[in-house]
Design brief:
heterodimer; A: mainly alpha; B: 270 residues; mainly alpha; globular
């Protein structure tokens, strides 16, 4: 037909009816696929990427949370250990302090008892010395009166002499007890 | 030659095959002398069938898309994703790639299925073996990359970008500019159309040579030649597989080149 009429080069000249058909058909295909199919595919691709990335993100978040919790537990554990150590130290210190206190008070008590004993002994001694002095004075006067046969009792001189003598004895006694 | 509607059925009367093998009669002979001639032929049937199959498949496969795709959804996504990722995004980057992927994918699928008729038994002719269909697509590609370029850069700057390659010595420009103009503005769509057309045309011719040749040998009446016709048919089958490669390759090349031209129009001044 057209081809034959125009010779061999005829195949290079498009038939306009076929171009029209081709354009309409391709236009229809483009319209349907570009309008209704491929945008939905892009949306699906996006949703898929979101799903995958969202999954990764969720996993990362969970991981981070787990790490945080672990860190917190470690910190708590460390704090608890420190506290325990502190309590132990404190208890030990308390015990030492209590021991010291007991020792001190016991020592004080002992000292006090010793001091009280000393004081009592001293007082007894003083009393004894006083009693002895007057006793010894009387005895000496009585004895001297009997020996001399004269009544010296009441005489002031005699009393002074005796006192002087006794004081001398007391001094001697004090010296000897001080030296002792 | 007007009666050559079904080439294979009347094969023996048409050997050797030639240009006349590409004339397809109107299905309704009353239309032949009207403007509706060539509107209802085996070729236009194949075109409409291509469009119908693609629309039906994609609408069916993508009726209820899911995050985890079903088998048919996966197939549809792969068909689109192949061009989207290996052509559109590779050439233009993520943003522009996603913008032009739908057109390029549609173009690829259309050409691929149109070409495929070349080896479908009973049809065995691709509409693309008539220059009208590749020419239509090439003109569309041309219109798109010109439009994009002018919109992106403005008319003057786009033509300067396209026709004046930088870095050449001044005296060569009077020669260079017309060549570049011819090559980038005029010849690009022509080569685009011719490449696809010629491949499908030649493919059909080769199949005809071996298959019609086989029938011719069977009808020769000489027993030896009749026996040798087996080799002719075997070559016909081998060429059909070869044709399958050409079908895929030419659909891909047409799409890739269109993508490259669009990318060139989008690109900044180099």
């Amino acid at each position: 037909m057209i081809h034959a009429a125009e010779g061999g080069a005829g195949i290079l000249f498009p038939i306009w009816q076929e171009m029209l058909v081709g354009a309409i058909a391709f236009g229809l295909l483009c319209f349907v696929l570009i309008k209704f199919v491929f945008p939905r595919m892009e949306k699906t691709f996006e949703a898929r990427v979101d799903a995958i990335e969202g999954g990764i993100e969720r996993a990362e978040r969970a991981q981070e949370e787990a790490n945080q919790t672990l860190e917190e537990y470690r910190r708590k554990l460390a704090t608890a250990q420190e506290e325990a150590a502190a309590i132990r130290d404190e208890a030990r210190a308390d015990a030492v302090a209590a021991k010291e206190e007991i020792l001190v008070s016991a020592r004080e008590e002992a000292n006090r008892i010793i001091a009280a004993g000393h004081a009592q002994v001293e007082a007894s001694r003083q009393q004894l010395v006083r009693e002895l002095r007057s006793e010894v004075g009387n005895l000496a006067v009585d004895l001297a009166g009997k020996i001399i046969g004269q009544r010296l009792a009441g005489d002031a001189d005699t009393t002074a002499t005796v006192d002087q003598f006794l004081a001398q004895i007391a001094d001697d006694t004090a010296e000897t007890s001080g030296a002792r | 030659m007007t009666d050559s509607a079904i080439v294979l059925a009347e094969g023996d009367s048409h050997f050797p095959p030639g240009i006349h093998s590409f004339d397809f009669a109107d299905w309704f002979s009353g239309l032949s002398d009207t403007a509706l001639a060539h509107m209802f032929t085996t070729l236009t049937f194949a075109v409409w069938a291509t469009v119908a199959i693609l629309i039906a498949f994609f609408l069916w496969a993508y009726r209820k898309p899911q995050i985890v795709p079903t088998k048919k959804q996966w197939l549809a996504e792969t068909a689109y994703g192949f061009i989207r990722n290996t052509v559109a995004i590779d050439l233009m980057g993520k943003k522009d790639g996603v913008r032009f992927a739908p057109y390029l994918a549609t173009l690829f699928l259309f050409i691929l299925f149109m070409n495929f008729w070349a080896i479908v038994p009973g049809i065995q002719i691709s509409p693309n073996a008539h220059i009208a269909f590749p020419a239509t697509l090439a003109v569309l590609s041309w219109a798109i990359y010109m439009w994009i370029g002018i919109k992106q850069h403005g008319l003057v700057k786009f033509f300067k970008m396209t026709c004046v390659p930088p870095g050449a010595p001044g005296f060569i420009y009077p020669l260079l500019i017309p060549i570049e103009f011819l090559q980038n503005i005029i010849l690009r769509p022509v080569t685009l159309a011719l490449r696809l057309f010629a491949n499908m045309f030649a493919g059909h011719l080769i199949l005809l040579v071996f298959i019609l040749g086989g029938f011719e040998m069977l009808n020769s009446g000489n027993l030896l030649i009749q026996g040798l016709s087996v080799f002719s048919f075997a070559m016909g089958i081998a060429m059909t597989f070869f044709e399958l490669i050409v079908i895929l390759l030419q659909a891909y090349v047409f799409t890739l080149l269109t993508g490259m031209y669009i990318q060139g129009s989008l690109a900044d001044e180099h």
